[in-house]
């Protein structure tokens, strides 16, 4: 009897799954600029859109991927066949030393559309409040199910990232767009669309002050900083950090969408920062590319890009928790990368390299440069993905704290020396005659 009870438990749990509601029978089609079309049905907003068609190999965390600002302007194809089985949580969290106002990676869905093989019609998770279909409809995001995502993935893998159009409803019967009609998001400054417009603070009582240049920050980057007792000030991507840099103990540059060359203004300002400022600097994804361009490296568009939670990278140098020669599994989402040059710019060295395509995955300042600067193409904060490199946030915050203590000690020593100097040279009144000690 006891064994029968244990056998029945999974059936009971499955019976508690929430019905997402009947899916629509509205026809939907994905047209690729290269000529292929894939037909399915809509489960999102009933509107047609253009975008850049990319695929992600992530198995879980579809909600985090869809709210990642780096997917701005992209039609996101999930290679995992079943999507939506654990629903969507309420996307609200407190603003405190542990969180930053949201559960997911931003307030809203950031990708232009979603393509899945099979969307779950039932979802089950203790934090879920709605289905994937309801979420897409509420956020006005088109979505297609019932297509062969494996075939789409193989096409994209062979021919590279491709422009596409999602056609919904009556637009399905129209001819596919001509080649010149496809919209290419790479021509737009997507960073400017997703970056904060005004500075704001998180965890203002933290023990170390870190400025964050927001190129389209994932919330878990900010969360990873405030959980390490950092007082974070988030600034627009093109903010003149040099005018306020002495107020901070470190600078962080976040991820973001699109072509980094649209952000050359930020790279030129950062070049001045790196030349004149000796405090720690850390960049992720787009931030890594901005650091590289400031150092004199060039950025290029990759054929495929890297998107997913299973990208292996090899550490070429040791720094903090990172050990040279070790392979780390990482979460990534990028279309652009830094060129590997020989020789590297003076004062810089490669930090990581991708084990699959040998692209540059990280750079760092050399020990001889006297600087503390790191940039990585992957996402140490994951969300979702592996936590192999999460301690890089600890390394960065500890460096900021150490530099703050060193600066305070130097300042106090100078004040003491100044006080002693003033005492020794202060005129001494002796019988009304000033005598130098």
UniProtKB/TrEMBL annotation:
Q: Which residues form the Carbamoyl-phosphate synthase small subunit N-terminal domain?
A: 26-167
InterPro entries named among the record's database cross-references = Anth_synth/Amidotransfase, CarbamoylP_synth_ssu, CarbamoylP_synth_ssu_N, CarbP_synth_ssu_N_sf, Class_I_gatase-like, CPSase_GATase1, GATASE
A Gene Ontology cellular component where this protein is annotated is: cytoplasm
* Classification via SUPFAM superfamilies: Carbamoyl phosphate synthetase, small subunit N-terminal domain, Class I glutamine amidotransferase-like
**Keyword terms:** Amino-acid biosynthesis, Arginine biosynthesis, ATP-binding, Glutamine amidotransferase, Ligase, Nucleotide-binding
CDD domains in alphabetical order: GATase1_CPSase (cd01744)
Instruction: Supply one GO molecular-function term.
Output: carbamoyl-phosphate synthase (glutamine-hydrolyzing) activity
Catalytic reaction equation(s)? L-glutamine + H2O = L-glutamate + NH4(+); hydrogencarbonate + L-glutamine + 2 ATP + H2O = carbamoyl phosphate + L-glutamate + 2 ADP + phosphate + 2 H(+)
Q: Which domain of life is it from?
A: Eukaryota
User: Which Pfam families does this entry report, sorted A to Z?
Assistant: CPSase_sm_chain (PF00988), GATase (PF00117)
Entry EC no(s): 6.3.5.5
Name any Gene Ontology BP term.
glutamine metabolic process
Which pathway is this protein assigned to? Amino-acid biosynthesis; L-arginine biosynthesis; carbamoyl phosphate from bicarbonate: step 1/1
Subunit text: Heterodimer composed of 2 chains; the small (or glutamine) chain promotes the hydrolysis of glutamine to ammonia, which is used by the large (or ammonia) chain to synthesize carbamoyl phosphate.
Give the family per the record. Answer: Belongs to the CarA family.
| Descriptive protein name | Carbamoyl phosphate synthase arginine-specific small chain
Taxonomic lineage from the root: Eukaryota, Fungi, Dikarya, Basidiomycota, Agaricomycotina
